[in-house]
Amino acid sequence: MKKFNLALLGLTLSTLTQSAYAIEKTYSLPLSNPGEPVSLEIEVHTGAIYIEGFDGESIEVSATMEEIESNELNKIERIIKDVSAELNDGRGNNIEKIGEIISGHKNKHKRTQRSTEGLKSVKNNSMQLEIEEEDNEIEISSEYSTQNVILHIKVPKRTRLDIELYKGGDVEINNISGAIEAEAFKGSIIASGVSGPMVAETHNTDIVVSFDKLNQKNPTSLTSHSGNIDITISKNTAAKVNVQSYKGEILSGLATEFVVSEDVQRKNKGGKQKIVIGGMMSAEVNGGGQDITLATYNGNVYVRSK
Amino acid sequence: MNHQTIIDLKLSTINKGVSTELILNDEMQQYIEANPELVKELAFIDAFWQQDSQELPSNELDKRFYKMLLQAQTAQQSIETKQTTIQLQKNSIFTTVKNWLSASFIRPFAQFAVLGLVFVLGFNANQNSNGVSQQKQNLAANTGIENLQQEVSSLSAMLALSMLDKSSAAERLTGVAYSQQTDLTDPLLMKTLMSTLEHDRSTAVKLAIINTLNHLPDISEQESQILAFAIKENNTLVKIELCSLLLNIGSPATKNELLKTLNESELNPDMADFLKRINAISHI
Is some CB atom of chain B closer than 8 A to the CB atom of A287? Predict the structure, then answer.
């Protein structure tokens, strides 16, 4: 029944969501200081981000931007909020109630039609994407909630990334040897051919990372509130993998066994009241090395070896 | 190949001033990956070097560093002086006895008797002297080691403070890792950790700090602050870990206050589930 409700919601939303038009642009920014460290900071409100490391000394950006009508967007947000509350309250099986919420919104937010006599429609071209570069530090931002921005970016492999995506699709990263920080509130974070350190966080979606090798200078930490975390490390990588999953399963393909980490053991010895919820498990791979910490509340943790 | 080869290569790379990143062949990479203690050593060199190259220490940190250096030097000098004094005293006694025995007026029998007496007395005296000097040496050495341990802890605290101030979450995580290498008695470090715990935007950093606090034998000084954080925290993962920390090593009064507040609060489903489990356990 819940699936049906969600399907109904999806259908309604799809009829409400209409993009007016799309703009596609490409940009090429040569680095100010070729061969020097590079950093890229991206902050996008709604959209998707795809980043690929390459051997060049420039930043290649391909951006597709499409407008989301703000009135419709607000309407969708309100409906999602109310329906989510209904589902979270455990009364989500009530199809009539969901229907009432959606039709209620339609009536509640119906606006009086204004006269358009003598007026012609002007296309809104004010969509904005800012790209700045100074001394190899690049900033790309699109903070408008009314536009959907899809970015395909090529950067030198050594680039240090700092990415924030609030809504929309996924963040995908390939072949980056620099440090990565990524936060996606609605979409997944998927990375391959990376060496960390990586600090990534999602809320309801998955984090999937395949490490080529592991940076031993700084720790890596992947956190998801309700999503799964899936990592793959190479067989000869030295690492200490720490896993904290409160409700999910831990599935490991490592040759090394996971054991309860030291601090939890200490607590068991001294404490009269034993409370172990979300205790940390650790595996020292190839004798141990830099920390990879994986924490999720509802999701499963998958640790693979290649 | 050994540890020193890699460290020399690292220092040489740093000295060239181009980059701190090592260019390694496969054999070296495998060797490093197989030796976690070497990895830590390289990380320390990196962190220490970057600290120097990226920003100058504040006047306060500068003063503390030189104060610590002076203390370490004083401790070392004190050990050396004591050892030299003991050595001089020993030399003086042996020289006197040697001169006396070499005097020609003592007959062989008397020499033998005196030698026997000297041997017995010397043996006893040496036993006592060895005991006393050993104790002194041990005391001096222990004091020296303690001082040096304190200096190392203080240096780790300085590194931790520096790293916690960085904009990169990975570097702040390294800062938290450095703080775990200290005894966490530095008030400035503890204050910074608590402030980071309250304000940091990275869940990973917050969780790492809570894990560090978990290593403290006593959190009585931080309890009220942690309780306030636990109550106002919106991030479920962090809130649960803060609550677990208080429930594990907090005082009974704080635990009761936390449970009372949670039971009276409107909680999201995950927190409600956590509280349900806690309530179930606390009734056992």
Answer: yes
Give A 106-145 residues with CB within 8 A of chain B: none
One domain for residues A96 and A224: no
Total domains, chain A: 2
pLDDT confidence band for A70 (50 / 70 / 90): low
ipTM: 0.72
A127 vs B121: which has the higher pLDDT: A127
Residue A12 φ/ψ, nearest 5 degrees: -65, -45
> What is the DSSP track for A236-259?
T--EEEEEEESSS-EEE--SSPPE
Q: How far apart are CA A302 and CA B144, in angstroms?
A: 48
Instruction: Kindly compute the dihedral angle of the four CA atoms of residues A95, A98, A103, A109, in this order, to the nearest 10 degrees.
Output: 180
Please list the residues that pair with B97 across neighbouring strands: none
| Residue in B171, B214, B237 nearest the CB of A218 | B171
State whether B153 and B176 are in the same domain. no
Maximum average pLDDT range among A83-92, A206-215, B141-150, B218-227: A206-215
End-of-domain residue from the set B54, B73, B88: B54
Question: In chain B, how many domains are there?
Answer: 3
Does A156 lie in the same domain as A42?
A: yes
Q: Which of A40, A136, A217 to mutate to test the interface with B (most CBs of B within 10 A)?
A: A217
Q: Which residues contact B187 (CB under 8 A, 6 or more apart)?
A: none
pTM (2 decimals)? 0.65
Domain span at residue A14?
Answer: 1-108+130-170
**Nearest to residue A223, comparing CAs of A243, A237, A194?**
A243
Coil, helix or strand for B141? helix
**Residues A18, A103: one domain?**
yes
Domain shared by B205 and B110, yes or no: no
The one-letter amino acid code at B261 reads T
Residues A138 and A5 in one domain: yes
Q: A261: pLDDT confidence band, cut at 50, 70 and 90?
A: low
Q: Does A243 touch chain B if contact means CB atoms closer than 8 Å?
A: no
Q: Which positions in chain A touch B215 (Cβ < 8 Å)?
A: 263, 266
Give me the domain span that covers residue B243.
168-282
Kindly report which listed range (A1-10, A185-194, A217-226, B171-180) carries the lowest average pLDDT score.
Answer: A1-10
Shortest distance between the Cα of A116 and any Cα of chain B, in A, equals 46
A88 shares its domain with A192: no
Convert the pLDDT of each residue in A13-41 to its tens digit.
333 444 456 788 899 999 999 999 999 99
